[in-house]
């Protein structure tokens, strides 16, 4: 017989585990399906989460898994490969198991596609960074570089100038003519140096970033490089269910209400599944909101059904 759950949570990151914790405490039979691919895996620490500042992401998730287990929540290391909506949801796992759920929480996050400059990917999360709020304090006052991926990288260069007064914006494949007059005025006011020319590679010595080398052979001494990966939302399951998406400059994300409810009845989304800028603390909050809404939804559905008998 196919196992039936009140809720299946797809994704075992901060959003998914937070939702599962609330659901477990509300005595809802819950299954978390976790593929084990958290977005922040390259980072040694996570910052800005009150009471958990500086905690390694893997430790944070391990504690979360222990907490949900106390309330009878099941967790399986697997991947959801298909889902069908009928009277309830049929959730198909890569391992061959099919389970049914009355409600779904999609917390599948997103993937970061990095610029294809040699050594950028291998240094990502160490001295190649993307978020100054996540890592700025730890690298403050060092020589920063910003590797442009679009004209919008001007904003990133301006933001990181809060943490260092030695910032160089490497335009890479962005033409200087693509920068607006306002961009140039702000960069000058922030004393950010604009460096035209394509970046050929990063210079790494003794396992530390020491410079950025351009295609013309010139090298700029830098110890930290910020760049903006291209976010790729993991919305395949939502699309198969027919969820409405809305386009943003950072990809297409599901249309949700204040609780994370999508346009598909019974399906909520949380964390980076609903936006590229959701930090760990936001993701955990979103999972909590979705779960509490689901508990109320299930209760009212059952009470209405009982009242009709």
From TrEMBL:
Residues 6-285 form the FAD/NAD(P)-binding domain. It catalyses: [thioredoxin]-dithiol + NADP(+) = [thioredoxin]-disulfide + NADPH + H(+). InterPro entries: FAD/NAD-bd_sf, FAD/NAD-binding_dom, Ferredoxin-NADP_redctase_2. Keywords: Flavoprotein, Oxidoreductase. It comes from the Bacteria. Transmembrane segments: none annotated. This is NAD(P)/FAD-dependent oxidoreductase. It comes from Streptomyces dubilierae.
């Amino acid at each position: 017989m196919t196992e039936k759950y009140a809720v299946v949570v797809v994704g075992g990151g901060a959003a998914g585990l937070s939702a599962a914790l609330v659901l477990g405490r509300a005595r809802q039979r819950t299954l978390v399906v976790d593929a084990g691919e958290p977005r922040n895996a390259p980072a040694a620490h996570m910052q800005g989460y009150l009471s958990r500042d500086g905690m390694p992401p893997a430790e944070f998730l391990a504690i979360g898994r222990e907490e949900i287990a106390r309330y009878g929540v099941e967790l399986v290391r697997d991947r959801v490969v298909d889902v069908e909506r009928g009277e309830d949801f049929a959730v198909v796992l890569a391992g061959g198991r099919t389970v049914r759920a009355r409600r779904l929480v999609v917390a599948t996050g997103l993937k970061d596609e990095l610029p294809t400059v040699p050594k950028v990917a291998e240094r990502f999360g160490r001295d190649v960074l993307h978020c100054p709020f996540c890592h700025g304090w730890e690298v403050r006052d060092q020589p920063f570089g910003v590797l442009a991926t679009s004209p919008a990288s001007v904003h990133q260069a301006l933001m990181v100038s809060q943490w260092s007064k030695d910032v160089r914006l490497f335009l890479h494949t962005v033409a200087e003519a693509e920068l607006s007059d306002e961009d140039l005025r702000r960069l000058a006011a922030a004393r950010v140096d604009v460096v035209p020319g394509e970046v050929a590679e990063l210079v790494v010595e003794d396992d530390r970033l020491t410079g950025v080398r351009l295609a013309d052979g010139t090298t700029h001494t830098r110890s930290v490089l910020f760049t903006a990966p291209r976010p790729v939302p993991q919305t395949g399951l939502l699309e198969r269910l027919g969820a409405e998406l809305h386009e943003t400059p950072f990809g297409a994300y599901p249309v949700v209400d204040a609780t994370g409810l999508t346009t598909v009845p019974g399906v909520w989304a949380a964390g980076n599944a609903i936006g590229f800028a959701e930090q760990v603390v936001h993701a955990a909050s979103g999972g909590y909101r979705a779960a509490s809404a689901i508990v109320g939804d299930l209760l009212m559905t059952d009470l209405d059904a009982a009242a009709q008998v």
